[in-house]
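Class, study these two lines:
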Amino acid sequence: MKKLVALVAALVMMLTLLVTPALAESEVKIYLFGQAQNMDKVLEKFYADSGLDIKLNIVWNTGADHREKMPLLIGNEEACDLVFDAYWMNLATMIKQEMYADLSSYFNNDAYPGLKAAFSESFLAQVTDAEGAIYAIPFTQAANDMQAIFYRKDLADKYNITVDSEENLEAFFKAVKENETGLVAPFGIGGSRAMYYLDLDMIQKRHSNIFEISGTGTAVGMEFEVAVSEDGKTVLGAATIGAPDEYYADFPAPYNTNTRSARAINDLTKWAQYTQANSITEEDAANNLFYTGLVAAMEGNISNYETAKREIEKIEGAQLGMFVYDENLRNKVPGYYVTSGQTAWNFLCVPYYSKNIDAAMKFIDWIFQSPENHDLFELGIAGEDFELNEAGEYTQLAPANLYTFPGYEMTWNPNFVRTNAELDDEVKALLNYQNDPTSYTASVMDGFAFDNQATPELVNAYAAVSAVQSEYIRPFMHGTYGADTAAKLTEYWQKAQNAGIEVIRQAVIDQVQAFLDAQNK
């Protein structure tokens, strides 16, 4: 009897051990940043309908915490099966350090029909290395997320101003500053983003074969630009904000002087007079200022239009307007948007040590197996959170437990784009233009990604220069140096030189030239 009891106990223990790993393998732990709302009901429906033996454990970080903590978490091999990353976070470094699993076997694979349908070979080209490995799943709806100013249209109407040019935008700011004394400022900005794309001639430059190189600076406006010959075969030069004009001498006119420095000196300081006094310490201008009625405008992207409209209309009498900076984008010129390098900015990755890689990829595959599956995670529960019209456009409903989710982190895909039926006709037309392949023109830099971890010398230089940039980036991008901006640019450049910015510059030249050579074989 004792032997029988011992045998039964041993069998129970063995079964417990077998069941426990099985349960652990069915839980997919996902690290994202930001926040979803009322996601529990969507997860319940997913569990009921998917037929997958998978439970999702989603951990939300703030953007700053996510960027800082994820390398440490993965370096310590803590539980994690999917993690958001991007080149503007840690992606290049993490791939270089072999922290992410190769996912190439899951794509173009009949066992994963959702992935096969949603991620074509051409779409995956941007994340496929020379050996065919894929370390990141790209999420985007279009190659461009149109940059814009969101503003209080009701206030513009009050002062009889049509915001359709930068001149009229400034007239609007002036009217608000002079008359709306209850506001803290006309224009709310914050973080290192600050005045992100205002007066930035990035797209125009691409028509002259001048391209910004992500991963060479701490933010937009601080990264290097590279000029390529008209035939697409030779690097003519590389330079960035703060560099003396001679660094730009071989760039094609009219960009053969430092236009980045000129923007900081002439443009950003001009707009700064319309921003709030404490802009440098503000981290969330949208929620803390614009949506609370304390400012009359903020920067944004067209993908955030729906959120901005919903939030601003909570203020009594408030209406949302949108001004797209670039005149050619406003006019929806076919082929105007020249692509450059990466065409997606947001990715999910699987840590190399994950024991649940199959389950993680089955979950992502399920999302893209049908529009209904995709709608569940992007829009919520049909009939409760949204409804579709005959054209396939959606209308967001208003339950007390409305579901919202940052789709750019997990659901955005060119093959699964729905338009909000309630958008203004012009906004809808701009979105359709943005999602139309004929709006884009390919460039010689398509597929290029800078590796800022290529050599130990570059790693050290990038870290040292980033530390210098962190001291100057907010005052430059916020325009708060005012009349001292030119002197501060010279001061910054000297410190950046001492920190090793020439190492980064030469790496940009060498890597781009090697890429062009390979493309022109």
In short: Confidence is low (pLDDT under 50) at residues 1-25. The radius of gyration is 25 Å. The CA atoms of residues 341 and 446 lie 4 Å apart.
